[in-house]
Amino acid sequence: MSRRHSVNRPPTPDVRDDDEDDRPKEPTLLEIVNIKLIESGEKERLMELVRERLVECGWKDEMRALCRAFIKKNGRENVTVDDLVRAITPKGRASIPDSVKAELLQKIRTFLVSVAH
Amino acid sequence: MSMLKEDDLSSDSELLSKLFVDILDSIIVDVASESHRIARLGLDCNLDNEEEELRLSAEARARASDPSNSGEANGKYVVDIFGQTHPPIANEIFECMNCGRAIMAGRFAPHLEKCMGKGRKARLKSTRSTTSARNRYSRGSPLSTPSPCSNSRGRLLNGSSGIAGDEYRNSTLEEP
């Protein structure tokens, strides 16, 4: 019974004892900043803030309606999370209100400044 | 971290947009996951029956506004949702605590008006019989009535002077 898993995740990478590629694993700047963002709790705060803003402006309701339409079209049992994500991401990214976008960018910029010094 | 200061501009804005997109994508995945859960658990029940429900609610509305049904005017009485009818005027009969008569509940308020002397006609009627008693006991009240025979002075001077005159005349014990 090969049934589609409703949540598809890539398999866990195996633990490598020695570095066969001879490539020193240096964390990129993005990774460093990301880790700092998460560890300080700022990422969670930002996400909560953005979630709240997006609920206020009705964005979340629009996305939920899109999901419902997609599910109705393709059948409740056949839909996976990845399908839904793929279906709503382009519209979702495009319909973020400018004020919310600006607020989030401002807060990330502030964080980057505080990390750099 | 000096490397941040070197190529500040380009990598900074690149960093900024990457972090921004990362946060947005996480939120989108959250919404998709929530919708997925609700759909698979069947919590959003009106997915398939939306048209069905629309039709049912339209039918119910038509039934409710149907005049031939026991709605607003079925003969004399209104039928409520439990199927009970209530007469327009409450018809339970009980005893008035003031005069002791048997009164209908729906007519109790007008009866009390007459019975307890709030109404105009009732007031005149009662003061004609008990003049001095009314004057003595209603001295500060705005409803204190002008009594016709014994105290013609008190008619305009409802305040202290009229009453004071009364005191001197009626009760010699109360001299200040």
TrEMBL record, chain A:
Q: Which GO terms describe its biological process?
A: chromatin organization; mRNA export from nucleus; protein transport; transcription elongation by RNA polymerase II
- Region ranges (Disordered): 1-25
**InterPro entries on file:** TF_ENY2, TF_EnY2_sf
* Superkingdom field: Eukaryota
Q: Which GO terms describe its molecular function?
A: transcription coactivator activity
The primary location reported for this protein is nucleus
**Keyword set, alphabetical order:** Activator, Chromatin regulator, mRNA transport, Nucleus, Protein transport, Transcription, Transcription regulation, Translocation, Transport
Q: In this record, what's one Pfam family?
A: EnY2
Cellular compartment(s): Nucleus, Nucleoplasm
Q: Name one GO cellular component term.
A: SAGA complex
Q: How does it assemble?
A: Component of the nuclear pore complex (NPC)-associated TREX-2 complex (transcription and export complex 2). Component of the SAGA transcription coactivator-HAT complex. Within the SAGA complex, participates to a subcomplex of SAGA called the DUB module (deubiquitination module).
Name the job this protein performs: Involved in mRNA export coupled transcription activation by association with both the TREX-2 and the SAGA complexes. The transcription regulatory histone acetylation (HAT) complex SAGA is a multiprotein complex that activates transcription by remodeling chromatin and mediating histone acetylation and deubiquitination. Within the SAGA complex, participates to a subcomplex that specifically deubiquitinates histones. The SAGA complex is recruited to specific gene promoters by activators, where it is required for transcription.
Q: Which family does it belong to?
A: Belongs to the ENY2 family.
Q: What protein name applies here?
A: Transcription and mRNA export factor ENY2
Species of origin: Sesamum indicum
Its gene? LOC105176247
Automatic annotation (TrEMBL), chain B:
In the UniProt record, what gene is named as encoding this protein?
Answer: LOC105171464
Q: Specify where the region named Disordered lies, as residue ranges.
A: 119-176
Polar residues bias: start-end ranges: 141-161
User: What is the official name of this protein in its record?
Assistant: SAGA-associated factor 11
The text of the family note is: Belongs to the SGF11 family.
- MF term (GO), any: zinc ion binding
Q: What is its main location?
A: nucleus
Q: Where in the cell is it found?
A: Nucleus
Q: Give an example GO biological process.
A: chromatin organization
Q: Which UniProt keywords apply?
A: Activator, Chromatin regulator, Metal-binding, Nucleus, Transcription, Transcription regulation, Zinc, Zinc-finger
The GO cellular component terms are: DUBm complex; SAGA-type complex
According to its UniProt entry, this protein's organism is Sesamum indicum (Oriental sesame)
InterPro entries registered for this protein in UniProt: SAGA_su_Sgf11 (IPR013246)
Fetch the Pfam families from UniProt: Sgf11
